[in-house]
Amino acid sequence: xxxxxxxxxxxxxxxxxxxxxxxxxxxxxxxxxxxxxxxxxxxxxxxxxxxxxxxxxxxxxxxxxxxxxxxxxxxxxxxxxxxxxxxxxxxxxxxxxxxxxxxxxxxxxxxxxxxxxxxxxxxxxxxxxxxxxxxxxxxxxxxxxxxxxxxxxxxxxxxxxxxxxxxxxxxxxxxxxx
Length: 178
Hints:
This protein is an alpha/beta fold and 178 residues long. It has helices spanning 13-23, 40-53, 86-95, 104-118, 138-157, and strands at residues 2-7, 28-33, 58-62, 79-84, 121-125, 160-165, 168-173. The chain has a single domain (2-173), classed as P-loop containing nucleotide triphosphate hydrolases (Rossmann fold). Strand 6 and strand 7 form a beta hairpin.
């Protein structure tokens, strides 16, 4: 199962995604953390997410770049991966000196395809950053364009696409099967 979870900042995406992972039952759970921390605000956000995951059986894997190079341990047990979040990974690939830069979209798509083949369930969290009506500088518009292309690719291949609005899931594609 491949689930894409999107929504605005503070909408409840992370909480929903973690709950969705738990609904897959008894699997090995990996949390792919993509955020690079540069200040106290970032560190506080990471700590808040760690507290949210506590006791849920996640093994955290820091992966800021090069998703296609990620190796998960071989196992005969079912595995579920929660990647949080696509907008951080995209920014890292675009702007970090060691990132894929101009090849960001292809690098991320290749990484996701490879990850999908390596796990039984994949939940990807991304951000909806396109509807605030603000006109941004060229570099930010390039980021939005790349993230938009990646999000469209993910949505096309996902079994389920869920937008979180005010903490509530709105199913855009597929639906929760219990």
